[in-house]
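Quick one, probably user error.
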């Protein structure tokens, strides 16, 4: 299946071509800004080194997207989703986590009114 052509990074003045909205360098800048200034401070404190270890271990145990598997597709999992968000009393416990591909995670987050809602 052919790929979409790369497009210029949306960061002002950046000439790099990318498959997403921003190049890797500027995506990190955008994410850092969001985490520092826009994410709720009470939620932000839950995403430190401990979370990264939990996330990496969970993805190692669940390498495929759970939603795609239910639909008969085999897609690598890239994100770990909290079924009950931390902001609503959820935890990092394994029974509250789901391994998802980026597309499925973005869809769920948008429906719940997360980062983009």
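Nope, works fine. Designed sequence:
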């Amino acid at each position: 299946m052919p790929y979409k052509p790369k497009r210029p990074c949306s960061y002002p003045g950046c000439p790099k071509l990318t498959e997403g909205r921003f190049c890797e360098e500027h995506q990190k800048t955008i994410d850092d800004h969001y985490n520092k200034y826009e994410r709720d401070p009470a939620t932000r404190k839950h995403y430190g080194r401990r979370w990264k270890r939990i996330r990496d271990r969970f993805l190692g145990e669940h390498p495929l997207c759970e939603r795609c598997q239910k639909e008969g597709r085999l897609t690598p999992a890239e994100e770990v989703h909290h079924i009950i968000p931390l902001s609503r009393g959820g935890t990092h416990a394994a029974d509250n986590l789901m391994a998802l591909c980026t597309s499925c995670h973005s869809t769920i987050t948008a429906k719940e009114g997360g980062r983009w809602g």
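The chain has a mean pLDDT of 85.
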